[in-house]
Amino acid sequence: MEKIKWGFIGCGEVTKYKSGPAFQKIADSEVVGVMSRELSKAKDYALERGIPKWFDDASELVNDPDVNAIYIATPPSSHATYAIMAMKAGKPVYIEKPMAVTYEECCRVNRISTETGVPCFVAYYRRYLPYFQKVKQLIEDGVIGNIANIQIRFAVPPRDLDYSGKQPWRLQPDIAGGGYFYDLAPHQLDMIQYIFGIIVEASGFKANRGGLYKVEDSLSACFQFESGLVGSGSWCFVAQESAREDRIVVIGDKGTISFSVYTYEPIKLYTEGKCEDIVVENPIYVQQPIIQAVVDHLLDRKICTSDGVSATLTNWVMDKILGKI
C-alpha cells in the first residue's frame, strides 16, 4: 500500500467528533467511502466532509476497489461480522471498542486475522494519548517505587434516558455485550493492562441497585496480573452526584499516582507528603494518535500495539467479572 483509503461502516457521533476528522488529517490517509443503513444519512455525512462515495450496504463498501481498509464504528454486536467480512476481502480493519460482545467472538475475529494474514486493530486510543503516556512514564521511571496495588474507582449518576423506560443500545446485552460496564470499563481495563501487563485472574460481583433498567448497574471486581500484582475495581452507574468519581489509583512504596480516564483531570502525584498536579494536553481529535499508528503500521513504518490480541484480553477480563465465562 502507498496510501490508506478508508471505508467507514457506521457514521455516528464517535466518527463526527473523536475519529472521523483525524483520518483526513493524517498523511497518506484518506476517507473514500462511508456506509449507513440509512442511505440518506451516509450521503449527508459524505457530502458534508467531501467523501466521494456513500453506501447502505456494507458488502458494497468492503468490496469497492477504491477502499483498502475498513473502520468499523457500529454498535458492538456487528463488529465481528463486519471485521470478518473485511478481512476475508483482504482489507485491514480498525474496530471501535469493545472489540466484540463476547470473548469468544473476539477469538473468532483473531482466528480469521491469522488465517488471512490481514491485520486487525481496536480503538483503545487512550494508549496513544500524551496524558496516559505521561502516567506510564512516571510509573516506569520508578517515581512512586515498587507498585503494590491498583484501584479503579468509577461512579456516575444515572443518565436522563435511564429514567425513560426505554432501552438505549448500550443497555441491551445482545447489542452492547452488557450494560454501561461493558461500554465504559474497556478503556480502563485496557489501560491498566497496557501499563502493568496481562491480567490472568479476574472475578466479580454484579447487582442492579437502582432498578432503572434490567442489566447490572453496580459492580465490584478483583484481579491479578501475570507479574503477581493485584488490583480491584468498583463501578456504579446509579450514584448520587456527590459520589461522582473517575479515577485510577496506583499505589507504590514511595508514593501514589491518581489519574482519570474520561475527564482528563490533572494527574496527581503524591510523594513524601507532597502533592503535584501534572497537566497534560491531548489533541483535539483524540483518536488521531492511534489512527496515525495504524496507518504507520499498514505502511510498514512501525508497529501499532492496540491490535485484536490485546483487545481480546480486555473482553476476557470483562466476561470474567460479569461471570459470562
CATH superfamily of the largest domain: Dihydrodipicolinate Reductase, domain 2
Count of distinct structural domains: 2
% residues in beta strands: 15-25%
State the helicity in percent bands.
25-40%
CATH class of the largest domain: Alpha Beta
C-alpha Rg (nearest Å): 20 Å
Write the CATH architecture name of the largest domain: 2-Layer Sandwich
Assembly state: single chain
Q: Strand arrangement, largest sheet?
A: 8-9-10-7-11-12-13-14
* Poorly predicted runs: none
The end-to-end distance, rounded to whole angstroms, is 40 Å
Largest sheet: 8 strands, mixed
Number of strands: 14
CATH structural fold name of the largest domain: Dihydrodipicolinate Reductase, domain 2
Shape: globular
| Structural category | alpha/beta
Which whole number gives the mean pLDDT?
Answer: 96
Helical stretch count? 10
Q: Could you spell the SSE succession in H and E letters?
A: EHEHEHEHEHEHEHHEEEEEEEHH
